[in-house]
UniProtKB/TrEMBL annotation:
Regions crossing the membrane: 51-78, 146-168, 281-300
Protein name: Cobalamin biosynthesis protein CobD
Compartments, record wording: Cell membrane
Chain's role: Converts cobyric acid to cobinamide by the addition of aminopropanol on the F carboxylic group.
Entry keyword annotation includes Transmembrane helix: yes
Broad class of the protein's primary localization: membrane
Organism whose genome encodes this protein: Thiohalospira halophila DSM 15071
Family as reported in the entry's similarity comment: Belongs to the CobD/CbiB family.
Membrane topology, as annotated: Multi-pass membrane protein
Taxonomic lineage from the root: Bacteria, Pseudomonadati, Pseudomonadota, Gammaproteobacteria, Thiohalospirales
Entry-linked PANTHER family: COBALAMIN BIOSYNTHESIS PROTEIN CBIB (PTHR34308:SF1)
Gene giving rise to this polypeptide: cobD
Pathway(s): Cofactor biosynthesis; adenosylcobalamin biosynthesis
GO cellular component, one term: plasma membrane
Keyword line: Cell membrane, Cobalamin biosynthesis, Membrane, Transmembrane, Transmembrane helix
Length: 304
């Protein structure tokens, strides 16, 4: 039986991502430069200005992607290409592996250098367990943002939804800071990212629970997720930590200051091996969700 087109596009894109990784010149980097140019030219410390600029940066590309994807014949291949560009699973696991390898052999200097590519906390202040925890947190959280949430919005709203989500997610990474410059200007981008990420984050948390220790993951999700400063990262990382049976969260050094963060998960401290375990947990979660998507698409199309 022929696979439904949406699921076939996802599977094809995931295989391409696994085999090829990201292109050297990623379109999101070009978008990032456009964001910087727009900000430099039209910045104003107001919510309205940030909202207008965010709309101008996101809506036209999303509409164009939706229009092009509807073209007969070539549209499906464009969707596969957009999915491949949007899903960053291979890049995430490669960066995490670059931390795990030196950490496993006791090379703290090498691990600190590699973890600086993944997280914003001060690597010089991190010991082995802190490096392992930071990297595992990154795999779990970005597994949602860079993989599962992107697939979710493609399934819900096609190429337009996929592009809109990834561009808003990128805008949030650039403008979503609670600083004097961005508190008002970046507020709409940050709130839009929270809104679009709310349901996918809960889907990711549920998938992590099913793919790991289910009861412990659900318990950590319910009791710890809401304490995190991010409404979406909290459930994802709490469920992931519980599924793996490790402790994450807690105090973290950020360039001269220590940020007090809630504890996540249960069990022992994270190690280098848990970085790989987090990647495998993400892989099982993605496979499970793709299977669910296939069943749903078959049912909707009346093939079951």
């Amino acid at each position: 039986m022929e696979l439904p087109l949406a699921t076939a596009a996802i599977v094809t894109a995931l295989v391409a991502d696994h085999l090829l990784g990201e292109p050297r010149r990623h379109p999101l980097a070009l978008f990032g430069r456009a964001v910087q140019a727009v900000e430099a030219r039209w910045y104003a410390p107001t919510i309205r200005r940030g909202a207008v600029l965010a709309g101008l940066l996101v809506v036209p590309p999303a509409l164009a992607a939706g229009w092009l994807a509807a073209l007969p014949g070539a549209g499906w291949f464009l969707e596969v290409a957009l999915l491949w560009l949007a899903v960053g699973g291979r890049s995430l696991t490669d960066h995490a592996g670059a931390v795990a390898a030196p950490l496993a052999r006791g090379d703290l200097a090498g691990a600190r250098s590699a973890v600086a590519m993944l997280v914003s906390r001060d690597p010089a202040a991190l010991e082995a367990d802190g490096i392992a925890a930071a990297t595992t947190e990154s795999v779990l959280e970005n597994g949602n943002d860079a993989v599962i949430a992107a697939l979710f919005w493609y399934l819900v709203a096609g190429a337009a939804g996929l592009v809109a989500f990834r561009l808003i997610n990128t805008l949030d990474a650039m403008w979503g800071y609670r600083t004097e410059r961005y508190d008002r200007f970046g507020r709409v981008a940050a709130r839009a990212d929270d809104l679009l990420g709310w349901l996918p984050a809960r889907l990711t948390a549920a998938a992590y629970a099913v793919a790991g220790n289910t009861s412990r993951a659900i318990r950590c999700w319910r009791t710890q997720g809401r304490r995190w400063k991010s409404p979406n990262a909290g459930p994802v990382m709490a469920a992931g930590a519980g599924a793996l049976g490790i402790r994450l969260g807690g105090p973290a050094p950020y360039h001269g200051r220590t940020e007090v963060r809630p504890a996540l998960g249960e069990g022992r401290a994270a190690t280098a091996d848990d970085i790989h375990r987090a990647g495998k947990l993400l892989g099982r979660a993605v496979i499970g969700l793709v299977g669910v998507a296939l069943v749903v698409e078959l049912l909707l199309r009346g093939w079951a």
